[in-house]
Protein 1
Amino acid sequence: MNAPVTKPIHVGLKPTPFIERLRPLNKFESLEYWKGYWSPADYGNAEREYFAIRNTSSVFDLSPMTKYRITGPDTVAFLQRMVTRDVSKIKVGRVGYTVWCNDEGKVIDDGTLFRLGENHFRLCCQENQLFWLSHSAEGFDVNIYDETDEVTGLSLQGPTSCSVLKALGCEGIETLKPFEMRAFPFAGGEVVVSRTGFTGDLGYELWIDPSLALPLWDGLQEAGKPFSGVEPIGSHALDMVRIEAGFIAAQVDFVPADQAIRADRARSPFELNLGWLVAMDKGHFTGRRALLEEQKNGSKYCLVAVDIDGKYPADGSIIYHHKETEVGHITSGIWSPTAKRNIGLASLLVPFGKTMLDDLWVEIYVMRELKWEKLMVKCTVVKAPFFEPARRRATPPLTY
Amino acid sequence: MAERADKTRDVIVIGAGHNGLVNAAYLARAGLDVLVLEKNDHIGGAAVSSVMYEGWTYSNCSYVCSLLRPEIMRDLELPRHGLQVIPYEGGATMMRNGDHFATYYDHDVFREEMRRHSRKDAEAYDHYSTAVMKQCRWIKPLLLRTPPDPTSFRPRDLQELLYLGKHFASLGERDMGELIRFFTLSIADFLDEYFESDVVKAHFAGSGIIGTALGPYSPGTAYVLLHHYMGDIDGSVGAWGFARGGMGSVSSAIAASLLSYKGEIRVNSEVAQVLVENGKATGVVLANGDIIRARKVVSNLDVKRTFTKITDPKDLPGDFLERVTKFKIRGSSGKLNISLDGMPTFNNVPAGHSSLRGDLHFTDSMERMERAYDDWKAGDWSRDPYVDMLLPTQIDPTMAPPGKHYMSVFVQYAPPTLSGGRDWDGPARQQFADTVINQIAACSPNFKDLINHYEVRTPWDIENEVGLTEGNIFQGELTMDQLIFNRPVPGYAQYKAPIANMYMCGSSTHPGGGVMGAPGANAAREILRDLRIHGMDPRQEIEL
Amino acid sequence: MTKSYDHIVIGAGHNGLTAAAYLAKAGGRVLVLEARDAIGGASATAEIAPGYKVSTCAHLLNQLHPRVAKDLGLASHGLKFAGTDLPTTVLGASGAVLRAQGDNVEGAISPADRAKYAAFRKKLLKFSKRLQPMLLTTPPRLLNRDFKQNMDLLKLGWAIRSLGRTDMREFLRVAGMNVYDLVRDDFESDLVQVLFANDAVLGTSMGPRSPGTVLTLLYRLTGEIAGRQGALALPQGGMGAVADALAAAATKAGAEIRTAAPVARILIENDRAVGVVLSSGEEIRAGHILSNADPRTTFVKLVGARHLDAGFQRDVTKIRTKGMAAKLNLALDSLPAFTGLNQSDLAGRVILSESIEQIENAFNPAKYGEYSPTPLIELTIPSVADPSLTGPGKHVLSAIVQYAPYHLKAGWDAAREDFLKTIMARLENFAPGIGKQVVASQLLTPLDLEREYGLPGGHWHHGELAIDQLLMLRPVAAASRYEGPIAGLYLCGAGAHPGGGVMGAAGHNAARTVLEARKSGEKAA
């Protein structure tokens, strides 16, 4: 046996192209698990980071985000069969948010589709999806390639983000409409900027070759100086703003259907308040027949935004009707520093949340000076988002 | 000894294997006067630790722990009686091309390792785990329940059948189908649905064949995999660990628990015959002629031994005996226990690598594994065997002197009887050992030099010492015709023998083998029920 | 101008023809479209050399459902038998011969085995009898059953339950076993073990030791032919005669059959099957489309991925269809001399194998993508009882050669010649000189069976007969009641419950499902 000793694989967190800049800033080494990558939870003060998103500009390292390049003559047909949205309506140069379902019409995951060409899409999502993508691709002439480590992403979000990008040299960025993307020359290469994000505020996502990641970082820091700076943020701050925006997160507000072990845990798009993403008239897609049935027979669950009395975050709390019957639970809950309300997203058993809106109560456990106390507080179904500044949708965006 | 007149006991348990001990401990805990009789000079059956070479403790037979039901550990307070189970992480299959496939505790590291072999497989792994987990979750509540008799109209059987039906339906339509597939698919077909890399498949397939006389291509082996996955350590499903001090410490902890409940164990007390009077079991006759009487007699022996060796055939209904003889208990495994002067090095994995602290294998393709089975079918041990090899002394400091190691090598396949009239108790035993040692040495240059001593256990040895028919580690094949209400014999899956006051509590009964303790606990529940003693009702399947 | 039809049946295999005949009899306008020039699918007779006709694929009739034969009046449409209740002869090592017919057995069998034989066979037949009602029942769903389905399920359960306690227990035990253990538990004589093992493994991808082979044996014994359960018959004129009678019944009732009309795809509009498009481009519409093609071909090829849910497509792709049986047809200038066999033996069925271990050993190479050097062979020489096939003096031999895997490592096109030599050498062992009698030969490997007869993977049953591919799971849970996810499209072939064998049950059940749909459709209209 002359074969060489095989070197075992690297054990430890995977670095991202920004790690050289980010690690020194992360003084408490506070990290969040994301697919084994080095990904910050916060830089010591999530609240401050939160206000950077809502007040100036923030940057978040999107490198671990799973990215699939989908090409080939059947690309559109393949996507039409896989996702619930009508992909033909996403024009080249635009981005669309969508979900995809299993046969039973339950959501497997959500993600954004970037249409880079007639037959060239990029699918960005939180989880690894190649298993489902490749099974869905059987019978279609498409090529699916995981380009996660070949495309670096950086999210620049906040009221000053447009101005910062202008200062970076992105000429005409102010004409970029929500869900549009455009390439700009940068450092001898290019940076693709899409007006997308997970914050419900004005913001952009920047896509670039990993070799230009550090120059981009440095460039943004420099460009941001006149605009009160560009603050690196972690997942904690991001989580706060996405709840304010009413956005759902996989593994938090729903269990991806292909990972659900218990039969009743998966949820349909309707049950996640994402019915607007389902294009029943576009022809067949996976789960369509089940969703038609659900439309006919009614959904079992619903997901709603709620306003909870008091100030204690209700994350994970059980919701009761008439303080007696369990009817659901809070999937995400925070005190919103901007809305100045105690807010949350809640999964409820229909008809609660649909027609039965009154007399809902949340059981919250709070610790006051080492003593746990149980509160039964009122909970009101409201309309998300909890905060929606005009700059989010305006083109050109209002100056700060 | 004979002069000591024994009083009539509440219960006599024949055999101090782990199930016999669990059974006895539960009964003693309920206040019964229990006597356990063991033919050997030590307890534990196949869960034993023994010193065969000065300074080294071997787990002679069973060698790792996962299936022992947590409910039993808690009920019998086994940790208080000295049981410590230490999980091990990782493992590796060493490949013929010099490479290896390692498993890692860390999900992402494991994923990267799979990607090294196949990107597709890395993606498929989570889906595979979810599928297995779903089925394990379904099966677990059934382990500590008594199977119903589907031919009966008794309310209890109907109620239990109804429960099974409801439990089945709770899976949802798609997974109901998946469950049926698990009982009938071969592990090869099942793995093919997820993985493409041969070494990845071979690594996972091992659990589908260990202890069974089936090859990985045989229908039904997917279930055997489940059987090995349904254990957990501290809630980590499918995890395996070492019992600190060797597997004997499982037995001694149960024994200590039994003694704490005022039960009694007698070693060197072989039972020759179950005493039956007026169609009722009334006690046992020992090999030395002593008679001990009891209200209930429980046998921990496998069903063949129980009814063909220590029961008079005239006490049994004819068709029952016929089915007992048709019950398939097939020896398919052997074992080497090796005392090593130091840690062996391996060509395929660098010294100190985490995977060496787990289960190690050399079979890197499904075809090699299946061919190993073909040898067994032909009445020979595998020329290229599948081994499950561990060095527990890397984690457990109690089993060998400092710096020295104990190696446990489980070998699949070895037939109970060899073709061509060869006898295991002859040169064949050494030839079998050489086959295994050479396979290890091919990947480990210093292995042979490190060997101080080794013990070879063929199916013949296991049968002769432990008393497992044919040396089968599960006391009966885990095939569909011998599971749930068919185990051990259709119509007698409720732990009761066809003789009044006689019970079975060995792995021949539901839910089968592995150091699980469930058959012993279930039999105890049935006995207490018959005695109208409360305190051991079927578990509620609330997830805690 | 194309005519319009109520029902289109894709494929004129025996199940397709059965469905067509039932639908036409019920007054529907039916069109059967067959890709090949001949009808019958695997139930076919063809000339392999001038003056030599033989059943090219299936060669014995043992399962044709009596209800189908009666309802469609097959006898009045020309189905005659050259032999019923055929004897089986097992030819083992050095001229050992076992002769079996019905419950009688003689020859190379120990007295103890002989004494047990009839009772053992009766027991199996009794168990199989209990499975018979299942054949014509549309499988109830696993969940969300309606009243009718619950009743069906109860009936199926009751059929087993009413065996009585002892027999039911025995049934539940043996149903999951392997045939090797089953017969060795009771018999010591090699050839009687071979007799049962052959019937259990033929056409499957399993060896005698594979769990599940008792089930395939019981399945086979559900068959009843000419009023006898578990018997074998030889149709006059070969298996093509069965197809001809079915076709006659169908056309008599008004169905139209077009051969050489391959369907390229099924037309789907608004999520409903509304017609077919032929390879020629011709488009034909109908209210219901029945597919006699296997489920994978039907859904993946003819319907296409874009009309299917991805999970369903994956399930259909996963159906296990590994064929391991080849077919050899020989034209012979005279009757071959099998050592120890007489003319009346050769009028029946002959099995060539020395022992059940030999069968298991023959299975071994097939697991690794190699054909067996000593395959298990079941043969008939139909021309002995039916001279119409060849004329006097000449003969045809039809042999099923078990353990030739579809996925051959060497590739079938390269290995076909060698495999033929291997089989001939094996035959020569039992019938010295047979090689010199061969006028022409036709070898159909599993790959050929797929190419020529559309049997996926060369598997006779369009999918392995195993518990996970039976009843409510055949072919997959979401299409187990003949109707899949696409409204208006039905499966009527062997891939659907209750599977293959020239039985006609799948065709019968599918037609019944379509007629029910038609009725409720009319009611709604």
Protein 2
Amino acid sequence: MKETLINLNSKGDYKMIKIIKNFARRLFSGFFKKRGEIKLGFYGSPNAGKTSLANRICQDWLGEDLGSVSRMPHETRKIQIKEDVILEKDGKKIEFKLIDTPGIATKIDFEDFMKFGLKRKEAQTRAKEATQGIIESIKWLDDMDAVIILIDSTLNPYSQVNITIIGNLVARKIPVLIVANKIDLKKSNVKKVQGAFPEYDVVGISAKNGDNIEEFYEGLFKLVKKI
Amino acid sequence: MAAKKKSVRKSKKVGKKDLTIHFMPYSEIAKKNTIERIKKIMGLILDKKIIILQGKLKPDEEVRLIENSMTLIGNIKDFQGIEIAAISGESENVNLFHKIRHNIAKILIGEQDAITIIGPASIVKEITQDPKKIELMLQRK
């Protein structure tokens, strides 16, 4: 804890460095940014289906996957990027840079991974990587042009992680589209997700099967207009 | 010789297995900045206390709190992170005037008509919430 407190005390300097760094990054990215390229982030809790949806988009438009998916939470522990993803609708082309982020959680217990058959050491390593992944996801919040929030529609949508992510995106004026995933499952309740976030557009899909994916693309094109 | 009577006062010490709930009025954090707020909350969490905070943290503070707890997992023994939930006193069926009044009050004195529960994940197993209630499930030890 002592170490953390020291770090927090020097946060004033850290904040200043961060502001300069962000300014420099924005300046240089302005020079090199491809015209029309939109940085689209995928955010949500672990196992909500972020990578599944990113894979679905990549398969539909590029014919290849972006990352691996698993039943075990925190499969994505590093930011994964796919550039030059061009989507076309009604003759209009939009170029995306897809940014798949590790799932954000407030707690991580390595013993949970052991329930999926990992050995103690492997589980501890995975837990460590997962914590670093969450920190990385949070850091990337500032860099997004638009964000897709993935919510598992079979679970209670009123999770603080969802509320916190959305709150942060709103504070940063980043447009949001909420995707209620896993509509192919019996327990799915898209209306509950819509009820939890009445101020936002909510699209129910199954990223795994591709159900309702056309409506998702329509929502995505609508989202882009808000940037 | 009469033996001196010593008045022995039994003091109850808080044991390791006891559960402590810390009620934190908004005034306790009102004048603190983000870093000081997080330091205060994390200090209590690492003392294995459940905090019931009057009011709400800002979205940026919540995310910093998550970030901070992630850096401590694996570095502090038995620390697994936090559980957090907030419930707002905001009513859905209010008129525009009430909303404006509420937003002005929020800017001036912070969001005090809310309750936030934060606890260490090693003690708080799960917090379930809906717009009107929060349920806290504790770990059985």
